Amino acid sequence: MVIQMNEFQFIDAIKPKTYKQPSLIKGIGDDAAVFRQTSQDIVTAVDTFVEDIHFSTKTTEPEHIGYRALAANISDLAAMGAKPAFYLVSITIPKSSNLSRLQAIFQGMNQLAAEYQMDLIGGDTVSGRELTISITVIGFVDHERVRYRHQAEPGDKVFVTGTLGDSRAGLYILQNDIEVKNREYFIRRHQMPTPRVAFAQALSSLTRVALNDISDGIANEASEIAEASKHPLFLDGDKIPVSQHFNQFSAERQRNWKLFGGEDFELLGTVPEKDWPLVQSAAEQTNVQVTEIGYVGNPKEENDELVYLYENAELRPLIKLGYDHLK
C-alpha cells in the first residue's frame, strides 16, 4: 500500500517510546536533540545510502536495508575506538513508497541499535525520486583513546578481524540465485554484518593502535593507513583469512573478493609487536577471530606510502582499488 499518512504522522510512528542513554536530555520532539557529555570525547560519522546504488530490493529485504545501513555507521565508530550511543536518520521517500516497507527499514535499524543500547534522537523526512537514507551516528570514547589511521609506525604488526570476502560472496549468491555450501552464512554476512565494537573496546588499554574498518576492501583500507601514517604496509596474501568453503568459488573471485570486495565491516589494524598478546587476548575475550597478516615498514623513499602484497612468491604493490562512489 502507498503511504497514507503525512510527515508528522510518519515521524510519530517511528519515534522511540523510551530512551536508553542516560546522557540524553531531550530526544525527538523539539527542533534538536540535547545530550550532555563532559568526561569523554565525542565521535561522530555519517553515511548515505541510495536505492539501486548501495542496496537493491532484489538482494536485500527492507529490514536488512536498515540493519546494514546502521551497521556501516557503527563500524566507523568501532574503528575510532568509540562506543555507540545515538543515531539520527534523514530519509528521502518516493511518493510511491510502501508504508510497511519503510517501517521494516526502521525496524531493522532498531534491531541492531538495541544490541548497542543506541537511541534514535532525530533526523529529517522529505519526499523525492529515490529512496535515500542518511544516518549520522554519535559515540563516546575515553580521552587519549581515539584510534587514528596515522598512528601506525614501523615494526608494527598488521592484523585483521574475522574473514574477508564473505559479504561479496553473499551478494554474488543473491544476485545469481545459486545454491552453494554455507549459502545462508554468506548471505547473512552480506545482509546482517557484525560491527566489531566489542573487540575495539577490549583494546582500550593499549596506548597506540591504528584501526580502519573494511568497508571498501582491504586494499583500499590498508592504503588509507599507509597514506595517513606515511609508512608502507607489507601484507602476506596467503595469511589474509577467509571462511570455510570460500574455496568453492573461482580463484579469481576469491582473490578479488578478499582484497577488493568490501562491506565485510571487519577491522584492519596495526599495533606494536609488544602489544600483540593483548590484541590476541581481546579477540579471545570477545570471541572474534584475529589474524596477523603483515607488518609496517620503513619508507624507502619520500613518497613510499604504498601497500605491498606478497603473493605467489613475489612482492608487488597492491593497487588501491575498492568501491569508489564517483566512478
TrEMBL record:
Every PurM-like C-terminal domain range:
153-301
The residues listed in the UniProt record as binding Mg(2+) 2, with positions renumbered to this chain, are 47, 76
Documented EC number(s)? 2.7.4.16
Q: Which residues bind Mg(2+) 5?
A: 216
List positions binding Mg(2+) 1: 47, 124
* Keywords annotated in UniProt: ATP-binding, Kinase, Magnesium, Metal-binding, Nucleotide-binding, Thiamine biosynthesis, Transferase
- Domain of life of the source: Bacteria
Quote the Gene3D superfamilies the UniProt record gives.
PurM-like C-terminal domain, PurM-like, N-terminal domain
- Give the pathway listed in the UniProt entry for this protein: Cofactor biosynthesis; thiamine diphosphate biosynthesis; thiamine diphosphate from thiamine phosphate: step 1/1
Q: Where does ATP bind?
A: 123-124, 149, 215
The residues covered by the PurM-like N-terminal domain are: 29-141
**Binding positions (Mg(2+) 3):** 31, 76, 213
Listed binding positions for Mg(2+) 4 are 31, 76
- What InterPro entries is this protein classified in? PurM-like_C_dom, PurM-like_C_sf, PurM-like_N, PurM-like_N_sf, ThiL-like
State its role: Catalyzes the ATP-dependent phosphorylation of thiamine-monophosphate (TMP) to form thiamine-pyrophosphate (TPP), the active form of vitamin B1.
The note filed under miscellaneous reads: Reaction mechanism of ThiL seems to utilize a direct, inline transfer of the gamma-phosphate of ATP to TMP rather than a phosphorylated enzyme intermediate.
Q: Which family does it belong to?
A: Belongs to the thiamine-monophosphate kinase family.
Q: What is this protein called?
A: Thiamine-monophosphate kinase
Source organism per UniProt: Ornithinibacillus sp. 4-3
